[in-house]
Write a structure and sequence with these properties.
- The protein is an alpha+beta fold.
- The protein has one domain.
- The protein has one helix and seven strands; from the N terminus they run αβββββββ.
- The chain is elongated, with a radius of gyration of 13 Å.
């Protein structure tokens, strides 16, 4: 079984790698309100551009735009939305 310390270390490494998020395959966001690890959970919070009416796919990217993770989802967006995305290491 992986320990809580190891999970936290993995979450911190992932946090260091994530430099951007890409929304719906084409909107890249690199300015985060929050990007931090608490225990084994990475939280990324960002403002969604007002041109987005829904989020159907969210990708985390490294500095070279390599995809680190992908989530398919459906979230409708209304004016001036701040989106909070959490990634938990382990279960």
């Amino acid at each position: 079984m992986i320990t809580d310390l190891a999970k936290n270390n993995i979450a911190n490494c992932y946090n260091d790698e994530v430099k951007k998020v890409r929304v719906n395959g084409n909107i890249v966001i690199d300015a985060f309100v929050i990007k931090a690890v608490d225990n084994d959970t990475l939280t990324i919070e960002f403002d969604v551009p007002n041109t987005v009416i829904s989020i159907t796919k969210l990708e985390t990217l490294d500095a070279d735009n390599n995809i680190l993770g992908t989530s398919n989802l459906y979230v409708t967006i209304s004016n001036d939305t701040r989106f909070k995305y959490q990634l938990k290491v382990g279960n």
